[in-house]
Write a structure and sequence with these properties.
This protein folds into three domains: about 55 residues, Structural Genomics Hypothetical 15.5 Kd Protein In mrcA-pckA Intergenic Region, Chain A, CATH 3.10.290.10; about 90 residues, 2-Layer Sandwich (Alpha-Beta Plaits), CATH 3.30.70; about 80 residues, Alpha-Beta Plaits, CATH 3.30.70. A hairpin with a 2-residue loop joins strand 13 and strand 14. The chain is an alpha+beta fold. Strands 5, 8, 9, 10, 13, 14, 15, 16 and 17 form a nine-stranded mixed β-sheet that branches. Strands 2-1-3-4 form a four-stranded antiparallel β-sheet. It contains seven helices and 17 strands. The structure holds uracil. The site of uracil has 8 residues, from helix 6.
Length: about 240
């Protein structure tokens, strides 16, 4: 693929901007300045530098973010900064069908929820992961206001009725992890689902953290606010 197309596909700006970056000597490929926008490279495993920023070529972008508290999962947040401010410009500017689209969050976490969030520019992946038929389990670590008792755990497992659906929703797994904490596994992703389920069981969520999606665990060495590319092994864990 030509260098100008590589930069464009990876979100480094319009085609004209990408040509300019190359011609002005801002792009290094394997440590060598490359001024020719038409020079072609094998993209598989390609790494390059743009104005000092190291970048790995990815045909599609799949990333995980350790979402901190105090950011909204919206592109146009109302109150808090957007999670998208935590991502580098190329991830926010990746083109799709000729338009700047960038990566999108796979589902949402509340402003005050922390933990594992996936983002991608693969619309089919978002669709597959969000489909209620897919039943990808998500594990939440919950801190509660009041002590957790066996009756609450039983209710969450048996199913509680939420206000927008007469059909009860049940946890796929639920265990008390401390006097005021729970580990809850859900197969759906309804609006405020954990908070509403815990409230319906007679308690209140004071802290919420998503630790797993499918078999993928939020890595301990990924600090809040930081992101990382998903490896093929990570992607495989999401569907197992
Ligand atoms: N359930 C909630 O209530 N909030 C979240 O952020 C995620 C799941």
């Amino acid at each position: 693929m030509q260098l100008q197309d590589i930069l464009y596909s990876q979100g480094f700006g319009t085609r004209r901007v990408c040509v300019g970056l190359v011609q002005q000597g801002h792009v290094l490929v394997t440590g060598r300045v490359c001024n020719d926008p038409f020079e072609a490279f094998e993209v598989e495993g390609l790494e390059f530098d743009v104005m000092g920023q190291r970048w790995q070529y990815h045909a599609k972008a799949y990333v995980m973010l350790h979402k901190p508290a105090g950011v909204e999962c919206s592109q146009k947040p109302s109150t808090w900064p957007s999670i998208y401010t935590l991502l580098p410009a190329p991830l926010r500017q990746r083109p799709q069908k000729g338009a700047v689209q960038g990566v999108q969050a796979v589902g949402r976490l509340d402003q005050d929820t922390t933990g594992l969030l996936l983002l991608t520019d693969d619309g089919q992946f978002i669709h597959r992961m969000s489909s209620p038929r897919k039943h990808v389990p998500k594990v939440y670590e919950v801190v509660t206001k009041h002590p957790v008792d066996a009756a609450q755990v039983d209710k969450l497992m048996a199913g509680v009725v939420l206000d927008d659906d007469p059909k009860p929703v049940r946890a796929a797994a639920c265990e008390a992890t401390g006097a005021c904490s729970l580990r809850l596994t859900l197969l759906e992703g309804k609006y405020h689902q954990v908070k509403r389920m815990v409230a319906a069981a007679g308690n209140r969520v004071e802290g919420l953290h998503r630790s797993h999606i499918g078999g993928l665990v939020l890595p301990e060495d990924l600090p809040p606010g930081q992101w990382r590319w998903l490896t093929p092994a990570d992607l495989a864990l999401l569907t197992t």
